[in-house]
């Protein structure tokens, strides 16, 4: 198994008006993680991202939020990974997932983008699908035409409550992953949660 050295949260972070929207849940997750471990995300101009270092079980973890729109996420993650000389296999990507109801969070390793522009940009620029992901459910509008507006809008109070509860469980699973370096153990813990 591979140690996680960068945790990157995806979102539309070029414009503050998207903070807290469904599509920004990956970035919001990283902000929460940063606060929990006393990190202070700072804008690093030459890397085009918000970055901090935190220590979890004496392991140095870089938290990253790309300062870009979603479809440019891969470029920023590529720049940061090159700068720190960290391989894609040591990066965990946090992102929103239309196919899960709010409150459902699951790990994934490899596979396609499922139409997610941020994941698609990572796969394209690294030319590689083999990386770790943590997918946070945001639900799906009934009509496909409504997807763009849906992801750029805010979750309802009930949805947000379910998401917040699930995030707490997922942080526990993330800590298991980092401490034990055992992906399957983390998956079993998280996926057993209701």
Protein described:
The chain has 194 residues and is an alpha/beta fold. The protein has one domain (6-191): 3-Layer(aba) Sandwich (Rossmann fold). The chain contains 6 helices and 7 strands. It has helices at 25-36, 73-83, 117-126, 147-151, 157-180, 183-191, and strands spanning 6-9, 42-44, 49-56, 59-66, 91-97, 105-109, 132-137. It has a 7-stranded mixed beta sheet, with helices on both faces. β2 (42-44) and β3 (49-56) form a beta hairpin.
Low-confidence stretches: none
Task: Categorize the overall geometry.
Answer: globular
Radius of gyration: 15 Å
The helix count comes to 6
- SSE ordering: EHEEEHEEHEHHH
- Overall number of strands: 7
Mean pLDDT: 91
Terminal residue distance: 26 Å
Largest sheet: 7 strands, mixed
Write the CATH homologous superfamily. Peptidyl-tRNA hydrolase
Strand fraction band?
15-25%
How would you classify the helix and strand content by structural class? alpha/beta
Domain tally: 1
Query: Under the CATH scheme, which class?
Result: Alpha Beta
Q: Say what the CATH topology is.
A: Rossmann fold
Helix-residue proportion: 25-40%
CATH architecture: 3-Layer(aba) Sandwich
Q: In which order are the strands of the major sheet placed?
A: 2-3-4-1-5-7-6
